[in-house]
Amino acid sequence: MIPNLTTPDFLSILPETIVFVMGMVVLLFDLFGRGRPIRNLAYLTLLTLAAAAYADWTLLGQGLSGFQGTIVADNYSIAFELVFLTVTAFTVLISIRYLEDQEFWFGEYYALLLFATGGMMLMASGRDLLLIFIGLEILSISSYVLVGMFQKDPKSNEAALKYFLLGAFATGFLLYGIVMLYGATGSIHLDGIAKALDGKSAAENPYILFGLGFLLVGFGFKISLAPFHMWTPDVYEGAPTTITAFLSAGPKAAGFAALVRILVEGLSATQFHWVQVLWLLAAITMTVGNVLALQQDNIKRMLAYSSIAHAGYILVAVVVGGAEGLGAIIFYAMAYTFMNFGVFAILILASSKGRERVTFDDYAGFGYLEPALGLAMLVFMLSLAGIPLTAGFAGKFQIFKTAVEQGYIWLTVIGVLNSVVSIYYYLRMIVVMYMQQPTNHSISQRAVPSVPLYAAIAMAIAGVMLLGIFPSLWMDLSLESVSVMTAGR
Amino acid sequence: MEMQLIFFYVFAVLSVGGALSVLLFRSPVYCAMALVGTFGFLSAIFILLNSEFVAAIQLLIYAGAIMVLFLFVIMLLNLRTDKSPGLTWSLPKLLGVAVSIGILSQMIGVINSPAAKIGPKDIFSPQYLDEKGSVKVIGEILFTDYVLPFEIISVLLMVAVIGAVIIAKRHDTDSGGEG
To answer: How many domains in chain B?
Structure first.
């Protein structure tokens, strides 16, 4: 018996289909277009992302579900998909110049970026552990390759191997957790799991807790929560700078999207247990990320630890839960994308052919050499630190406000203290740029202009300021989109 | 029933022994052969569990295809036997062992706990599987309930192939080019 597939089935996977099919088209263009500039592929990729975003936009509010409920296009998944598409669009914009600087001419780069994006979208929209897992693997395998693409650079190779081995190990944990949940509930569909757990005693079944624990370890690795974060700085430092930017925003948001959906829609009966675990993880993650970021001299490593810290803040929102808390996750993911990519775009613009500029010393006096870029960097750093009138502040405010309202006073105290610590290393960049005398190592020549990079920086500035001054622009959709999950539970 | 239990323990001990020897043998070829043995014993356990399909796939894909490739690679690379001095103990290693033992004892505790319950099997009882044959049941589910994941796996495989080609290909700086 062949399943009766109808239009809603295909509409519900329309954005994913666009991304995957165009990924293959990019590959074919690369094959038959040898000799043409690789930046054409970048523009094709941007067009694809715009088309997928438009498809997402038209599906908004319809709450489609397809293929026997394995996949949905509800507002939650669409909001996250818009975040992922933004992340990839930024990555493409900052890649054009970077790949030329590095003399890297492989069109597969853009195809793999598209596939990784498709994997993230599946993670956000899958309602079946199998589909979520496959999405995660598509994302992971693409990322391993993207990290190791610079074969000439031993650090890139080391990072790829480290990421691959530890990632495969974490995948084992995740699968083991899924198997245990399946054994205990007889289903890998989130609805089926929730139905099997609908009764107090089932939640006390040790197999469920076993599965939950392994699941958290697996996802904890992917979103680099504190005890599982060891790979992050090495991988982020070794990877091509554009991919570092991509990894610190995209896969983390996707990991949160899938984790929250599994916890809230499938395992809400065990909420008492996972809230306690995540509380502790959030506290450790924020502290470890911020304290270790203090002593970094390499900006990529500093941003790696800072991304760990930001994952900790987002985890606070997961612990808090409810529409307000979960909505803050989506808002924060978008806000973090803007400020993070802003910094990376400036790093790439300041670098020149064959010479990357990623240490603090490079930027001594940068604020006077490039007043406009210095000002932009200032805005991004203030936003990362969470100073009012920026997107970073709006996100943190929403998270900690909700946490206080729900009575998580101690977690809020830890979070706010960490925020204060983080100001030190974000302001260090500003101090270096404006108050230190340039040495002969630091950047002495003005940046070579590049339209895509200027576009990325302008978009990032606009995003940071708009979300900071008018948070409701994105917050309303974020809050509304999680209502599909919290309603009636 | 008794007989089945005896077989289970025999194969269980053999597969765990095989897995241990993968870790303990020094020569890569021995390790690979021990892994082939482990896969074989695992597939025997799958047969005892009434899932002939998984058993056959385990033998064909893992013991057959994947391990043969492994052996090819090991022999082509002409790897020498590991000559490094035996196990050395360091703090991280001890910590790793402690954590592993902790997790293992937790797992044993979970499995032995009286509260641990296996979930509902729906219609998939051993009788039902015997009646229809597990291959048919798996095929039906794969092309109805799980048709989307099944199709998406093809993307996963393609990404893996592209990735392998990119990583393995020699990147000459002067080839390609912007033209």
So the answer is: 2
Mutate to test the interface with A, among B54, B103, B136, B148 (most CBs of A within 10 A): B148
Collect all residues of chain A within an 8 Å Cβ-Cβ radius of residue B166: 106, 108, 112, 145, 149
Are residues A64 and A11 in contact, defined by beta-carbon separation less than 8 angstroms?
yes
**Distance between alpha carbon A316 and the CA centroid of its chain, in Å?**
16
Q: Is residue A436 part of a domain?
A: yes
Report the C-alpha gap between A472 and A470 in whole angstroms. Answer: 5
Q: Is residue A1 part of a domain?
A: no
| CB-CB under 8 Å, A183 with B148 | no
The Cα A258–Cα A401 span in angstroms is: 24
For residues B125 and B54, membership in a common domain is answered with no
CA distances from A393 to A237, A396, B176 (A): 27, 5, 46
Considering the domain architecture, whether residues B71 and B19 belong to the same structural domain is answered as: yes
Q: Would you say the ipTM is above 0.95?
A: no
Distance CA A301, CA A289 (A): 11
Tokens of B115: 């509260």
> Which ranges of A148-230 does DSSP label H, i.e. alpha helix?
154-185, 190-196, 200-203, 206-222
CATH number (domain holding residue B59):
1.20.120.1200
The reply to whether B105 falls in a domain is: no
Cβ pair B10, B34 in contact under 8 A: no
- Asked if B74 and B132 sit in the same domain, the reply is no
Q: Domain limits at B159?
A: 121-171
pLDDT in tens, chain A (489 residues): 566 788 888 888 999 999 999 999 999 998 887 777 788 899 999 999 999 999 999 998 888 888 888 999 989 999 999 999 999 999 999 999 998 888 888 888 999 999 999 999 999 999 999 999 999 999 999 999 999 988 888 888 899 999 999 999 999 999 999 999 998 888 899 988 888 887 766 667 888 888 999 999 999 999 999 888 889 999 999 999 999 999 999 999 999 999 999 999 888 888 888 999 999 999 999 999 999 999 898 999 999 999 999 999 999 999 998 888 889 999 999 999 999 999 999 999 998 877 888 888 889 888 898 899 999 999 999 999 999 999 999 999 999 999 999 999 999 999 999 999 999 999 999 999 998 888 887 888 888 888 999 999 999 999 999 999 998 888 888 888 887 776 544
Residues B57 and B6 in one domain: yes
**Could you tell me which chain B residue has the CA closest to the CA of A160?**
B167
Is B114 part of any domain? no
Angle between helices A129-147 and A154-185 (to 10 degrees): 170
Mutate which of B112, B122, B152 to test chain A, going by most A C-beta atoms within 10 A? B152
Q: Are residues B75 and B141 in the same domain?
A: no
B118·A207 Cβ contact <8 A: yes
In a domain, A2, yes or no: no
Please report where in the chains the tokens 């703090």 appear, as a residue. Answer: B91
- Parent domain of A137: 7-486
